[in-house]
Amino acid sequence: MTMTNEPVDKTDATEPSTAGTKYADRLTRLSGQRWKQALDVQAPYRRNIQRLTLGKTLDVGCGIGRNLAYLSKESVGVDHNPHSIQVARDRGLDAYTTDEFFDNPQVAVKGGYDALLAAHLVEHMPLDQTVEIMESYLPFLKDGARCVFICPQEMGYKTDDTHVLFADFAVLQEVCGRLGLKFEYEYSFPFPRVVGKVFPYNEFVVVSRKG
């Protein structure tokens, strides 16, 4: 049998869900580990989000609000997992389930957002589903709004059984193209691309623009 360290595309498989209490609890547990708090391991990722200066952002797939907490105060988070949304709300963040967002005209404002962030979302679903979901949020972005996609590299991809699609730079550029977004630039964070094969927290970052 040939062994490989490359990620496997699992989009045809039945994978564990990101929708239940168990997944929300896992995110909370991982983010609250003492060593992570003591070392402030989120500091570089916090600065990475903040230096993008995205303005009022629609954080799609916000989870428990890890990135939402670093965005501008008027930003809004959306996630299909109501348990994750409750955790985000308990942290004082403005977060909504998918249904709540679309049913609330005060937050689902056409052209009301400066940017869209999809961080650690694309890898959880087949590509066609990503495009369908992202399309539904584009009307709420201003013309010229930036769209930022962040996904794990090889080692990070392997750490979560709910990851089904390895979304590298090429895949994320395809997402941008299918959505009619103008690709602007991409980078590996926080370390060079090669590090992603051994370091689980290295990320692909792709920045694009609407219109």
UniProtKB/TrEMBL annotation:
The lineage of its organism: Bacteria, Bacillati, Actinomycetota, Actinomycetes, Geodermatophilales. It comes from Antricoccus suffuscus. SUPFAM superfamilies: S-adenosyl-L-methionine-dependent methyltransferases. Keywords: Methyltransferase, Transferase. Residues 1-21 are annotated as: Disordered. It comes from the Bacteria. The keyword Methyltransferase applies. This is Methyltransferase family protein. The keyword Lipoprotein does not apply.
